[in-house]
Each structure stands twice: as structure tokens, then as C-alpha cells.
Amino acid sequence: MADYIGQQLGNYRLTQLLGKGGFAEVYLGEHVRLGMKAAVKILHTSLSEDETRAFQQEAQTIATLSHPHIIRVLDFEVQAGIPFLVLDYAPNGTLRHKHPRGTRLAPSLAVDYITQIASALQFAHDRKIIHRDIKPENMLIGSWGDILLSDFGIATIAHSTSSMSAQTLMGTLAYMPPEQIKGKPRIESDQYALAVTIYQWLTGELPFQGSSMEMIAQHLAIPAPPLRNKVSDLPVELEQVILKALAKDPKDRYGQIQEFAYMCEKAIKNVKQLGTQLANQEISNTLPGRAYTSVKSSDPIPPMVSQPLQQTTDYYLNKSKALIEVKQYQEALAMCEQALRFDPSSALLYVNRASALCGLKRYQEALEACDQALQRNSRISLAHYNASEALMQLGRHQQALEACERALQFDPSFPKTYINKSRVLIELGRYQQALDTCNQGLVYDAHNALLHNNAGVALANLGRYQQALEACEQAIRLDPSSGLPYVTKGWALIELGRYQEALVACNQALQHDAQDAWAHNNASVALMKMGRYQEALHACEQALQLNPHNTKAHANKAFILQNLRRY
Fold first, then answer.
1. From CA 446, how far away is CA 415, in angstroms rounded?
2. How confident is the model at residue 224, as a pLDDT?
């Protein structure tokens, strides 16, 4: 295999080999102009012209997968016939590295991992994308303990080439469902592979073992051995859920992968004690004579989770983060506060607490939680980001800008920080800098709708209305569920003299959020421009009812009344 250290692929200079597998090597790459770090995955194959087109099409598809538990594809290219992808860099390694073969995990931790991965897979499945290579080696650990799924689509590319080694095939075979072995993968195939993964985590063994031919035969025809044959105190309900997901016929598995994860969670929900040896620590089958220290009953660990401190903290971190992602902020806050009672030294718990408080619009408390996090670890980018959000909402824009700068210092690739920074710069009237910030953020996430929207706002304030309109259209294509781009689109169309189209855009914004004062205000301007003063007055009064301090709406109302001759 070639050594690529020191070479440049695309915009990235390769500085360190991070790992290698049967059909790919992963290098740490540094952007030659921006200095950002990324993982560069180089496939061990040369592609024909047809294969190159297939690779590019596959890469374009997976590049659209933007989800909290999916490693993003930042770029892809074929250079001198060698395909490579540029991915988010996750510096904490994989779950395979964290939990080596032979390790048994507590059910609560294993199910927590499964829930996060299932969330990512459901997102992909909803877009008709199958992963095809689910295994612990493709599950990475994010900067604050979250689990990130990598290598979407790469198995498709590798399996289509003749250079795939027998060793790679065997490693993949351990998790491969019967229909995929037959060359007919489907959505349910990922569920089977995920079930093999949790089977291995809970028992320390794969359900099917042996040579490649033996594993193929077992996957195709032999039921997986019951988990309780290996771990007698495992909940019966959890065993049943996993064995169902391991059904040979995809139709006999769960309808959706999130249903599988939900049933796993449900199976352990009411289980408070699963045996001291299994629940209190990971157990290595490779160390049969090892002595373990039990958690004392006096230790400050909640009764629902009797695990070592770090494992318990990780559990609460991941659970609270998952709750924040689905906007269950009160529940996330309660979980953080419970965890902080037994681990008050965790900076990341304070980060999650701040995120939940921001979601609840309790910004002063959120700022205090950020301070607590930063006292424990001043280099956590997300703590600085949360501080910027709280400061911005409190109207402290200059301090919010400084918090954004600190966040970017520690993580220059986090798109949300660029969103906040551009918003603050717009509030400060620094529109060109706001536009530059949006463009910097789009280098890391070209599919971020909010960055395109903020660019549209900056462009409109700079008087570049046609470009603003184009930015808004792109934001709408990327996220049609958001009303924000329609508001800016309406403004740009008014300035371009396209009043009827502007009114349509305003109405579309109000369909998303009937309480958007700016959408009502823009609608009043469009109606006024078309001479529909009575309707314009009604829209203007709606805007003022929602925001009595809107000076533009007051000015519009005065003009409308003058035209209606109502002094």
C-alpha cells in the first residue's frame, strides 16, 4: 500500500495515518488554506471511468446526509484514478477501539449506543439510503461522547470492485444479513447488522463465527444462539427483541430501525438491577481471572444506573443530548441536574445543561451554566457556542461575537457557530463581515439552510437583492420546513419590484409561523405597493401586535393611513 503522508489530495495535506482496513486507509488531513482538520479516506482501488461516475454519484448522495449522528462528507474526488472522501474528523476513535472484541457492555450502555445509531440510520432510510456496512469500526465517538456513524455508501463502492480482499469480506460477513449475502440488500439489512452488533456487545461474542463459508451458511440458515445461553441474567424481553431483528426473512424484522431501538429501550426500561457483575462494569471474556471493584451502595449514583462513574456520566450525556435534539428541553435539564449531583466535575454535563436552558429561553441561567463548564474546561467549543447564543438573546451582541470567536478557535468546523456569528454581525450592522462569515461556514457545510438564509439577509442589507433572492431559494430547497427564508425572500422581491411574488412568499412564511412579525410587515409593504391599503393596514396591525417596537411597521402604518385619508 502507498504511503500518502506528506502528499496533498484535493485541498488537504495528509499529516498522519489514523487507521487502515481491508479496502481503505484513513489519514488526518489539514486544509492547505483554512488549516481545518479532516479525515481523508482513501480507497484501495483504482476506478474505471464508469466506476468513477458511480463513485461520484454515490458520494453526492451521502453528502446530503446532515444529521447529528452521521459523520459528514465534506468533499470527494478522484485524483489520478484513486477515489477519496473528506470527512469530519472525530478525534476520540471508534467504539471498536473503546470496547475491544470480547468486551461485554451493560445493557443500558449498549442500548444507548443502538438508539443513537438507529436515529442516524432512520434518517438515511427515510431518504432511501442503506448503509450496508454496520459494525463497531464504523461508529465513531464525537467530541462530547456522542456516537457518529461513518462510511455511508463506501461499502457499495468497495464491494463493486474486484480488489476487495477476502479478509475484508470476512470482517464484513460477521455482520452481514442473508439478503445482502445474496446481493439484494434492503432497508432492513442495516437492522440485522445492528442487531449483530448489540448481540456482540451484550455477550462478548458474535452470533455467527468460523470461516467465511461457515459464516455464510450460518447467516443463511441457522438461527442465532439465544443470548441468555451466554448471559443468563440478561432481560428476556431484550433477548426477544434482538432475536426478532436477527430474523432471516427481512419481513419478520421490525418495520423500521427506530422501532427496533425503541423496543430495546422498552425492554430495559423497568430493569433497575441486572446483576452486579454485568451492570456495574464492562466484563472482558479475555481476562477470566480478573478481579473487579463493585460500586458501593453508598456511592452517589442514581439507583436507575448502577455503573462506574464515567460510564454513568456518558449515559446521561448521551441521553440528555438526545432529548435536546428532539427539543425535550425540560426532560434534558432534569437529567443533567440529576447527573451533576453525582458528578459535579463534568464540564460536558454543564454544556448540556446550558443547551437545555437555551432551549427553554432561560438565557441568564444558560450563561451561568456555560461559565461553570468553562471553569472546568475552557477549551470546549460548544460551551462558547452556547454562551454566544445566550448573550445574543440577552442583547449583548459584542460579547456574543467574542464568544463565537472563541468557539471557532477551538472548533473551526462547527456550522452553528458561523450561524450565530453571522446573526450577531447582522445585528451589529456589519453586513459584509456577516456575508463573509456565512461563506466560511458553507465551506464546512454547503447544505446548511440557515447559513444560506443568513447570507440572503446580509446580501439584502447590502442592496444585492437578486443574489439575496438566490440565497433564499437555496435555503428553501435545503429546508422547505423553515419559514425564515420566505421572510427574506419576500423582502428581496419587494425591492426588486415583484410585489405579487413577494406577497406569496410572505404568505408561505406565515404558513410556517403565523406569529412572525416581519412576515406580516413585509406583507403589508407588498400590499401597500399594489395599492391594497385596507389589507395592508390589517397586515401592519398584525405586525405591531406581535412587535409593538417595530419602527418600520409604525412608519408603514402612518403611510397607509395617509393614503386611506384616515388622520
1. 10
2. 96
Q: How far apart are CA 42 and CA 4, in angstroms?
A: 9
Which residue type, as a one-letter code, is found at position 301? Answer: I
Q: Residues 298-315: what's their mean pLDDT?
A: 49
Contact 424, 433 (CB under 8 A): no
Residue located via cell numbers 460548544: 382
The count of C-alpha atoms lying within 13 angstroms of the C-alpha of 402, restricted to the half-sphere facing its C-beta, is: 5
3-state secondary structure of 550: coil
Determine the topology of domain 491-566 in CATH: 1.25.40
Q: Say if residues 130 and 186 touch (Cβ distance below 8 Å).
A: yes
The answer to whether 366 touches 386, Cβ cutoff 8 Å, is yes
Nearest to 53, CA basis, from 187, 125, 160, 138:
160
* Helix 309-325 with 347-359: angle, nearest 10 deg: 20
> What's the rounded Cα separation, in Å, for the pair 163 and 174?
20
For the record, the C-alpha cell of 134 comes out as: 454496520
Residue found under cell 428553501: 476
> Does 41 belong to an annotated binding site?
yes
**pLDDT tens digit sequence for 192-221:** 999 999 999 999 999 999 998 999 999 999
pTM score above 0.90: no
For cell 425503541, the residue is 262
Share of the chain above pLDDT 70, in %: 87
Our measurement of the distance from residue 241's CA atom to the centroid of its chain's CA atoms, rounded to an integer in Å, reads 26
**CATH 1.10.510.10 residue window(s) in the chain:** 93-156+171-267
Backbone angles phi, psi at 453, to 5 degrees: -65, -45
C-alpha 343: how far from chain center = 26
Cα 7 off chain centre by: 30
93-156+171-267: CATH number: 1.10.510.10
d(CA 12, CA 7): 8
Contact 71, 88 (CB under 8 A): yes
Catalytic residues: 133
Closest CA to 20 of 6, 4, 33, 32: 4
**3-state secondary structure (DSSP) of residue 367:** helix
In which element (H, E) is residue 85 found?
Answer: strand 82-87
Q: Do 245 and 191 form a contact (C-beta atoms < 8 A)?
A: yes
CATH number of 7-88: 3.30.200.20
Please tell me the total number of residues recorded for the chain in this structure.
Answer: 567
Angle separating helix axes 107-125 and 309-325, nearest 10 degrees: 30
Q: What is the mean pLDDT of residues 37-53?
A: 79
What does the block give as the cell for 350?
Answer: 454543564
